[in-house]
Amino acid sequence: MADRTGTITAALAGTIDIGGDLPVNRFGFGAMRLTGPGIWGEPEDRDECKRVLRRALEVGINLIDTADSYGPEVSERLIAETLYPYPDELVIATKGGLTRPGPGRWVPDGRPAHLRAACEGSLKRLRVDEIDLYQFHRPDPKVPFEESIGALVELKAEGKIRHIGLSNVTSDEVERAQKLTPIVSVQNRYSLIDRTSEPVLEVASLEEMAFIPWNPLEVGELTRAGGVLAEIARRNSATPGQVALAWLLGHSPAMLPIPGTSKVSHLEENVAAVALDLAPADLAALDQAAAEG
Q: Which of 30, 171, 259, 280 has the fewest CB atoms within 10 Å, measured from its CB?
């Protein structure tokens, strides 16, 4: 599988219906890496990044996740430059609520005025009148959570946001947001070896939300892993990274992985994970190995 046949598409992962009216294949693309080092500035190979975006659509990916803070603004502009006018089936999700003082630095800003400006900036950069899925990037400890969510509710009422999602939140924050507005997705850090957000995943599953795990390959750590992960990969003619992504898909029907990359070859390798059908014994072995650390 690691060699890729060219016939595997994201459709093999099945579909998930975001908000009841946005069906997407259950394997998306995270566009954070289409920027420079430290997620700052232009990417080193802009043309290759544009090829990645076009190839993502060719292999059946119809959810692209980005944010105004990626670059900042670089990722959104590149998506529009490469893919606009967008295919009808493509869902573009973006986020607001973080500012960028410099490379590798992320500062929450959940003020309603900032979220409004961030959303309107994303609308212009993405060249759309309405954002399919707008996610609050991270709660701001200096701003009451309900005030931040209230700003998104207003933007939705104005037709600028179709659906609202959350990112980097607790189960309690999901429940608090739901009292104000329907929440259709949660994007938290989650992987085979980092399941801190398991309670949030459980809430998402019960409430029929999409759960979007960010950093699903632990910044490449799981692509280089040995031990049980490497052995299962060898038996399945796959890479460790493919096994880690296939585990996510098998772990919960609410799961919607969005591994990112700036290389076409890596994109194709990631997508090939959707064709990997792990045996129950393999899934159990991975769970045990992760529990043992």
A: 280
